[in-house]
């Protein structure tokens, strides 16, 4: 049997993407398909991009790489 509403995983890599990360997440949030998980992998950013990800009112899994 084919699943008509499969889970779609969106994985975003981030390194100092403060200028773009919030708009990118909001774009994902605004999509009409609702069976989506969003994963942000932060590669030791030194800007405020990770803080922006954490402040977006959207269910996001965050993976923080230390280096």
From TrEMBL:
Pfam families: Glycos_transf_2 (PF00535)
InterPro entries according to UniProt: Glyco_trans_2-like (IPR001173), Glycosyltransf_2 (IPR050834), Nucleotide-diphossugar_trans (IPR029044)
Glycosyltransferase 2-like domain boundaries: 9-66
UniProt-listed PANTHER family: GLYCOSYLTRANSFERASE, GLYCOSYLTRANSFERASE 2-LIKE DOMAIN-CONTAINING PROTEIN
Protein name from the UniProt record: Glycosyltransferase 2-like domain-containing protein
Organism taxonomic ancestry: unclassified sequences, metagenomes, ecological metagenomes
């Amino acid at each position: 049997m084919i699943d008509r509403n499969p889970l779609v995983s969106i994985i975003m890599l981030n390194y100092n993407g403060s200028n773009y990360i919030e708009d990118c997440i909001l774009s994902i949030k605004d999509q009409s398909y609702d069976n989506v998980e969003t994963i942000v992998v932060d590669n030791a950013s030194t800007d405020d991009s990770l803080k922006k990800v954490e402040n977006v009112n959207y269910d996001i899994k965050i993976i923080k790489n230390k280096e």
